[in-house]
Specification:
Largest sheet: 4 strands, antiparallel
Strand order of the largest sheet: 1-2-4-3
Shape: globular
Number of helices: 13
Helix content: 25-40%
Order of helices and strands: HEEHEEHEHHEEHHHHEHEHHEH
Radius of gyration: 20 Å
Length: 324
């Protein structure tokens, strides 16, 4: 493992999804061994108090590294380590052997990204393509009426979290509404990625900030923050479920692969985190999809065609940022 090869692998690992785009994975090279660490300074105290989502993000980052290594004929072997105290917590040691075969999903890594804008109108072909995303860990709902019900469910669940002052403040701290923000292209959720126009950016700052309480008292905050129409416009809702009790690191690896399958099918995707994070919403969706009792809804995505295959620049930390 040379420093140049290490940097090349890390450059692909940083493209993996992470919750709120906080990117907790850090990397270190010691001899031939690669260390994966978690930067706990970016933990989400209100949105992720148990560290579940951070672990999923770390698993996705490792999967990204593994895909990049396989393209070079290298198999990545993970050895978990006991986590210690401090801002940088060691998660695992990674060693490499030869003999790996490139994974077809790696071709989709450069183009995968969250799509939070409106979808192109869903055709019959789009819905059939969405059904093809069904897998052992993915159920797909394509009935327009069911999608409409989920749109209402996710907005209700999302707003329930947003009414919590700590959660709302934390979310705002990771929003980059204006290009002058020093981390606009580095991390978090910037206005371009959220597909916010000028008036929407101004409105988001007001509704999520000082204006929330009075607008909520008037019953205006919820409709202003709703994404019902965007969700209703989806070709399908992908429900990502895993065995109950599975290590979230392993769930994160599988989730990245599921998302890559979505983009490989020609779709864009936006995570509907509240469906899994809210226990009542998760139970309702599990019942809708008839998920087995030993499976847990880990995440959900609305998927559909991007208009004109539009893409936005990624906000990502640099390789130098994440190598420690």
């Amino acid at each position: 493992m040379t420093p140049d090869l290490f940097r090349s692998l890390v450059s692909q690992a940083i493209l993996a999804p992470s919750v709120h785009n906080v990117q907790p994975a850090r990397w270190r090279l010691e001899g031939k061994t690669v260390w994966l660490l978690e930067d706990r300074r970016v933990r989400l105290a209100h949105a992720d108090p148990t560290g579940h989502d951070a672990a999923m993000s770390l698993g996705a980052a490792f999967e990204g590294l593994s895909l990049a290594a396989a393209d070079l004929g290298l198999q990545a072997h993970l050895s978990p380590v006991e986590q210690g105290a401090g801002d940088l917590a060691p998660i695992a040691q990674i060693s490499f052997t030869g003999g790996a075969v490139p994974d077809p999903l790696s071709k989709t890594v450069p183009v995968r990204q969250s799509w939070r804008g409106a979808f192109a109108p869903a055709s019959v072909h789009d819905r059939k393509t969405a059904v093809n995303l069904v897998a052992p860990d993915c159920e797909v709902l394509t009935d327009p009426e069911t999608i409409g019900n989920i749109a209402t469910l996710v907005d209700t669940a999302s707003f329930g979290f947003i009414t919590r002052p700590g959660f709302r403040a934390e979310l705002v701290s990771w929003m980059r509404l204006w290009r002058r923000h020093p981390n606009w292209a580095r991390d978090g959720l910037n206005a371009d990625a959220m597909h916010l126009g000028l008036l929407e950016k101004m409105g988001a700052g007001l509704v999520m900030g000082a204006g929330f309480a009075p607008l909520n008292a008037l019953g205006l905050a919820a409709p202003l923050l709703a994404e019902t129409d965007k969700t209703k416009g989806a070709a399908g809702i992908v429900l990502f479920h895993r065995p109950d009790g599975e290590d979230p690191f392993d769930s994160g690896r599988a989730f990245y692969r599921a998302w890559l399958r979505v983009d490989a099918a020609g779709f864009g995707a936006a995570v509907l985190a509240a469906l899994a994070d809210d226990p009542d919403a998760a139970a309702d969706v599990a019942q809708m999809a008839a998920l087995p009792g030993d499976r847990r809804l880990v995440s959900a995505m609305r998927v559909g065609r991007r208009p004109n295959h539009t893409a936005t620049p990624r906000a990502r930390r640099s390789v130098d940022d994440v190598i420690v």
